[in-house]
Design goal:
The chain is of the alpha/beta class and 439 residues long. 40% of the residues lie in helices and 15% in strands. It has 15 helices and 18 strands. It has helices at residues 4-19, 51-59, 103-110, 112-116, 132-135, 143-158, 186-200, 203-216, 224-238, 264-275, 292-306, 325-331, 378-384, 389-405, 423-436, and strands spanning 26-30, 34-39, 42-47, 65-68, 75-80, 88-90, 95-97, 99-100, 170-177, 244-247, 279-282, 312-313, 336-337, 359-360, 365-366, 370-371, 376-377, 409-413. The strands form 5 sheets. It has a 5-stranded mixed β-sheet with strand order 1-2-3-7-6, covered by helices on one side. A hairpin with a 6-residue loop joins β4 (65-68) and β5. The protein is elongated.
Length: 439
């Protein structure tokens, strides 16, 4: 799995983050213990752990060391090789990176742990508890980015003629539109409101939901889910942000609401999104992640409704088959995916907050599609982790600080269904996060 191509891909990804742009290089030597590259007549030799150690690493059994981050913000885990205590050494011929800064990043970027795992949850998703991130407590550390910054400091010191173009930190709000209306009839409305009461015993929110129901009887645009789309749009616009809205176009099922993507009220939403420079993408349905025909059909529907080419996507339920889904998305014309995150745990599933190309393990090459990894989601914090408002704010602040340090992009997901349904969480967690980290 850790081939020459795989290691070259990992170096390319790390250097792109470190420099802020893609730089050409060639591999001059590769073995089980190292890979050497030539970049602008400069040689860099990266030491790597042996094959047996790599297998132990995958199994979570390898002992890791720790070193200070590039800015001494924290300690970060590393694999030390040959007993070396210094990050690198340089002689007249080349610069040698003594720590293995490639093996863990390759596993994270390629999702090799997910690719090899057969243990899934009830929705056929890879579990955080089985991940390399869980085994080494990496989920709150953007390890690929941290290693890239270490390499940046080395290049700045030893090769000052190589230009560094630091990328600016950004926030990208994203919104999965699982349904456009909460109240589609009296029976569903009563069932929904009673269910909310039983689950939360929040009489204030239940009373608000009942008022929304009454208003929606005369005007569907006053339904809280539809108003949620509009508010997400307005709040991004007010904070100078460009949201990405993912719309569904599947048939009704136990997991897909099956709303009408050609709904008259959505037409104005699509126009506003387009006019503002924001993006309409697709939220492929529950059964698309292994079925290219169903995926193509749904992409076509969203393209028809929005009258735009659809190139951005996030899978419903974050449901993904690491052996098939990227291939299918590429075939369906998707250029950028936003799915890579754990439903049950916020943080850096791929070890990075930067856009990157995932790796095609079956064909030993990078995919053409780009991945913008998901860092935090509303339901992760409020439902899976059951954070209080103050706990959720602290988690976002900690994660955001790590993204800022490396000039990454904080991809946050907030559903339209949880705008007027969990107003305190929306206002005090999401909106305050946007206001604090933009402008």
């Amino acid at each position: 799995m850790r081939t020459e191509n795989a290691l070259k891909y990992t170096i390319d990804t790390i250097l792109t983050i470190a420099l802020g742009y893609k730089i050409d290089f060639s591999v001059s030597h590769y073995s089980e213990k190292n890979i050497e590259i030539v970049c602008r007549d400069k040689k860099m030799n990266f030491l790597i752990c042996g094959t047996d150690d790599f297998q132990e690493l995958l199994e979570g059994k390898l002992n890791l060391s720790s070193v200070s981050a590039f800015d001494e913000y924290s300690q970060i885990p590393v694999i030390k090789t040959n007993g070396e205590e210094n990050l690198y050494q340089r002689d007249e011929e080349k610069l040698t990176v003594n720590f293995d800064l490639l093996s863990l990043p390759f596993i994270l970027l390629s999702s090799l742990d997910e690719y090899l795992s057969e243990d899934k949850d009830e929705y056929d998703r890879f579990l955080y508890k089985n991940s390399i991130s869980k085994k080494y407590d990496l989920i709150k550390i953007a390890l690929v980015d941290e290693y890239a910054m270490l390499i940046r400091t080395v290049i700045q010191k030893e090769y000052p003629d190589i230009e560094i173009r630091p990328r600016k930190f950004s926030v990208t709000p994203t919104h999965d539109i699982d349904d456009i209306y909460r109240f589609t009839g009296p029976f569903k409305a009563v069932k929904s409101i009673i269910g909310q009461l039983v689950n939360t015993w929040d009489f204030k929110e239940v009373f608000s939901a009942f008022n929304f129901f009454l208003q929606s009887l005369s005007d569907k645009c006053k339904d809280p889910y539809f108003k949620g789309i509009e508010k997400l749009f307005k709040d991004s616009e007010a904070n100078g942000l460009k949201s990405v809205f993912f719309f569904m176009a599947g048939n009704p099922s136990a997991y897909d609401s099956g709303y009408d993507i050609y709904d008259e009220n959505l037409k104005e939403i699509f126009k506003k999104i387009d006019a503002s420079g924001m993006t309409s993408g697709i939220h492929p349905g529950f059964y698309t992640f292994r079925d290219i025909d169903v995926l193509n059909e749904q992409v076509g529907r969203v393209a028809g409704a929005t009258e735009k080419e659809i190139t951005h996507s996030r899978q419903h339920y974050l449901r993904f088959d690491r052996r098939k889904t990227f291939d299918n998305l590429e075939k369906a014309g998707i250029h950028t995916d936003y799915t890579m995150g754990f439903a049950e745990e916020e943080g850096f599933k791929c070890g990075t907050s930067h856009e990157f190309h995932p790796y095609d393990l079956a064909n030993d090459r990078p995919y053409k599609i780009k991945e913008k990894p998901l860092i935090a989601m509303d339901v992760t914090m409020s439902m899976y982790k059951k954070y209080s408002v103050s706990e959720a704010k602290q988690v976002l602040e900690t994660l955001c600080e790590r993204v800022k340090r490396t000039g990454g992009d904080f991809i946050i997901l907030w559903h339209n269904a949880y705008v007027y349904r969990e107003m305190e969480f929306y206002n005090k967690v999401y909106l305050e996060f946007l206001k604090k980290n933009t402008g």
